[in-house]
Amino acid sequence: MHDSRWRCLCSRESQMHELDVPVLIVGAGPVGLTMAALLADQGIASLLIEQRDGLHQAPQAHVISARTREILASLGIADDVLARVTTPPADARYVTWRRNLAEEDIARIEIGGEARFVQLDAVSAKRSANVPQHHLERLLFEALSGRTRCETRFGQTWLDAEEEGDGAVSRVEDSASGEVYRVRSQWLLAADGASSSVRRGAGIAMAGDTNLAHMITMNFEADLRPLVKDSPSILFWTLSAKAPGTFIVHDAARYAVFMTPYFPPHEQPGDFPVARCERMLRAALGSADVPFRISSLSHWTMQAHVADRYRQGRTLLVGDAAHRFPPTGGLGLNTGIADAHNLAWKLALVMQGRAGEGLIDTYGAERRPVALANCEASVKNFHKMREVTAAMGIDDRRLPMLGRIRSSALARALPDHVRAAIGGVFVAPVEWRTRRIAKAASTRCAAIRQRVQRAAEDQMAHFSTVGLDLGHAYRGAAVCDDGTTAPVAPDPVREVCQSLTPGARWPHFHLAPDTGVAYRTSSHALLRPGHFLLAGTGRHGAVCEPLAASLGTAVVGVNLDLAASHKALAQVVAWNDGHADAMVLVRPDGHVAWRSTAKVPDLNEVSAVLRALLQVTPFQPTPRSQGNAMTNPMDMFPLPSPDPQARSPRKLAHVVLATRQFEASIRWWSVVLGARTMFRNEMLCFLSYDEEHHRVALINAPTHSPGKAETAGVDHVAFTYGTLDDLLHTYARLKSHGMQPVWSINHGPTTSLYYLDPEGVKVELQVDNFESASELDAWFRAGDFATNPIGVEFDPEELLASHRAG
Ligand SMILES: Cc1cc2nc3c(=O)[nH]c(=O)nc-3n(C[C@H](O)[C@H](O)[C@H](O)COP(=O)(O)OP(=O)(O)OC[C@H]3O[C@@H](n4cnc5c(N)ncnc54)[C@H](O)[C@@H]3O)c2cc1C
């Protein structure tokens, strides 16, 4: 076990090492990784432990929903990065039923057509996509590696835990050394998957349908393009008794998965050695010409279970640890990631002492009903799938009998090839019949094929789940019920009605391009990690920004009259039942918490609502000081609101500047950095754009003498951006605020834009030109810097134009 920045103690009695961490997350699957990243972004440090030696090498899930993509985007996983590991949409257009992969289609449905995406585009800026789970996990892990508040340790197995005081003490085993150590944490998060030992340790039971199916999974490498190019499908079902199952074609040129059922008690996973799997896979491919290599075999049991509760003391369940669904519907991972998103902000606020602990209980109260609904839908899909096989005349309830025959004591005594031949005798009639149905031109066979096609078309709810994905409206203590009910779509699985009803997901609509955002920017761009959003129209619109800044909790205020596109604004008013004056408070997880359609905004109500949601003690006005009519000093000043379009820098601790132009400087720094006012009074203003409490502090010093260019002291302050794109975006944004750089220079190590604040302080906004410190070192050693240590000036307008042109 390596040393770390966690507090490392040595327990006297046991001589056992002990770590002290705020949150321990068990399991680095997609949900544990997401959880750690979300917590880090909200200022909460965690230790993530995983029993495996590294990330998964083979996929399970493939469908990631629009909602999951919205959450990934909030973690900074860019669309183009995700696109690099996504199965191209053109290769995932259909779901197809064939006897085997080499034969013609018996039935096919289109799941990735443009019509479906148009439906999706109306409700989200993100389209669902097929991303092999192991690639997604790698992206999440990379995202995590760039965050300082989380440490991931592989080869560490969680053994057990005990509650002690306000926390849990876990025992963890390091698989390399065999050492067992203790981890004390305020919260223990079980993200350890379907057979969660943390859940069992906490005594939480699961309920639901058990052992729906038993499956062997074959991960294999092959170039399947010759077989599938005429029907580019993400899934192929084989309607066959010889090799019944499902192909998931993650990458037709390189690798795929074949899953086939086995039938306990007659068969066990051990009855499927590589040689037998190769024979089955060859039969399922239906071609002797396609070479393949099985890279791994695994087995799993299909369950439909949801935990009785999501919390026991300091232990919380997320992802498959809380629910395990049949994969029919592609809802498991997506539900798990939405769990993490729901929990992270609540946990962060409670741990930071800004919310009462009761807020944590709203997590299970909100997410468990979602799991129950998604579990039910997945089970329904699983059973309904049988209708296609049945239409083909295959009674798949007879398949277990085949398993029994193949594994009877008599058959086991026979050599493999004889045993296979016996199986063949029973399979042959089914194979003969399905071949005839698939190929014969007779009216009877054509009618059967039509029946199969109709049964396949009836499966759309399995592959089109935007309603389940985006349609949940939460109720309970973390939502202020206004007596309205979120509208429900006619088909709540496949369709969604967006609304501003408390509990519903903040709807997707477009922002106005003339406010400095790109054409068709989504309303979801207004949401900031860990922040509430206060958005209003009409009389409420104008007060949102100053009110948000005065609330004391992280709230971004937006006047939708200015921010929303013309068309969207009409829609927003319609969502508010025609009320032009309205205000909504949106939670950090993008669900509407509260709405007001009062004629006149009631500012005290917003503050009271926030306190109620966060379950903090009722607001007690502080006694008024003499001669001061205001209870909150923040109310005394107009507070600039951050520009929602700002892309903020990555680094800098803080800078303290004395200024004679206090108000102008506050405005200037807030606009340039997209910073919030953390505190201010007459003397001092703290501004921050990230987890740091203050990055820039301004001291009101009206009597200070002006700085002179030649005065020694601070020369300039520099902020580093993540990418050139972010820097140029900032250039364009500041230009729209009338701010121009005074100097644009490529220093060699950095590309830099220098601005002057109201006091004339030089502020360098920069991006690194080199990927790593070692590349930069090599460049310095090459001597270019010594020859020209200042750099080369450039025209930012030209750079912007060439950057935009690619
Ligand atoms: C064939 C198939 C297809 C699927 N397709 C989809 C799909 O398209 N879309 C979808 O949304 N879902 C799909 N799913 C479901 C999806 O794979 C799971 O829901 C998802 O993996 C759950 O993620 P998780 O992080 O909660 O758990 P897991 O992915 O199971 O991760 C849990 C981690 O915890 C670790 N762990 C366990 N015990 C310990 C311990 N004691 N100490 C330390 N570490 C431990 C494990 O090693 C593991 O890495 C599919 C599942 C299958 C089987």
TrEMBL record:
GO terms for molecular function: FAD binding; oxidoreductase activity, acting on paired donors, with incorporation or reduction of molecular oxygen, NAD(P)H as one donor, and incorporation of one atom of oxygen. Signal peptide: none annotated. It comes from the Bacteria. The chain crosses the membrane at residues 21-40. Its cofactor is FAD. InterPro entries: FAD-bd, FAD/NAD-bd_sf, Glyas_Bleomycin-R_OHBP_Dase, Glyas_Fos-R_dOase_dom, RIFMO-like, VOC_core. Keywords: FAD, Flavoprotein, Membrane, Transmembrane, Transmembrane helix. Residues 651-768 form the VOC domain. This is VOC domain-containing protein. It comes from Acidovorax cavernicola.
